[in-house]
Design goal:
- With about 210 residues, the chain is an alpha/beta fold.
- It has one domain: Rossmann fold, CATH 3.40.50.360.
- About 35% of the residues lie in helices and about 20% in strands.
- A hairpin with a 2-residue loop joins strand 3 and strand 4.
- Helix 1 packs across helix 5.
- Pfam families: FMN_red.
- This is NADPH-dependent FMN reductase-like domain-containing protein.
- GO terms for molecular function: oxidoreductase activity.
Length: about 210
């Protein structure tokens, strides 16, 4: 397999400075273990560790720490957008990340290819309420709109009992069905990323 790289943005509501661990972090870690088994190198950043200004431009000016994260997303072959569910929605942090990528719509080259063309995106979700499929659907459409390619079985998730107390981070290893989902996501994402790395989209003639 050609050398591939995955970059994840953990859109937890907790910054790294928070002493409490993150279930989103645990799911990303489990995904990375599977990616590394198929030769994909991995890197993760926690979005709240950076000052991501609100807006729909790639650089919102002084103090905006989005541009380096944007570059890491584009330098990777596979982008992992990871988040918790709150009120049945993607976390507010994840929504801000997607808003910032709206700038890709205006950054297409002369053949209509956006910066994310040829990049694969997958979504990881955790929560103690229903709604993972809804969150996946919202994220898939946004990511596809700005140029990412979504592979088959591109979502990994765990949701506990509604209003329950158990969290994903409490598992020493993923439940069987979650692991099966992770393995399929990784296999399909790596396969598609390899294809696109060797032969990306041609775009259209002006």
């Amino acid at each position: 397999m050609a050398s591939l790289k995955a970059f994840a943005l953990n859109c937890s509501l907790k910054a790294s400075s928070n002493e409490e661990s993150s279930s989103t972090e645990k799911l990303v870690s489990d995904l990375f273990k599977a990616f590394e088994k198929v030769g994909v190198s991995c890197e993760v950043e926690r979005a709240l560790d950076h000052d991501i200004k609100p807006g729909v431009e790639s650089d919102m000016g002084e103090g905006d720490q989005w541009p380096p994260l944007r570059q890491k997303i584009l330098d990777a072959d596979i982008f992992v957008l990871a988040m918790p569910i709150w009120l049945g929605q993607p976390s507010s942090v994840a929504k801000r990340v997607m808003e910032r990528m709206d700038a890709f719509l205006e950054e297409a080259d002369d053949r209509g290819r956006m910066p994310a063309a040829g990049k694969v995106a997958v979504v990881a979700v955790v929560g103690n309420e229903d709604g993972a499929h809804h969150v996946h659907a919202e994220c898939y459409q946004a990511l596809n709109d700005v140029g990412f390619t979504i592979p088959a079985n591109a979502g990994a998730y765990w949701v506990g009992e509604a209003m329950g107390s158990k969290e994903y981070k409490e598992f020493k290893s993923p439940p069987e069905k979650v692991q099966q989902t992770i393995d399929m996501l990784v296999s399909n994402a790596a396969h598609l990323a390899k294809i696109l790395k060797n032969a990306s989209y041609p775009g259209v003639d002006s």
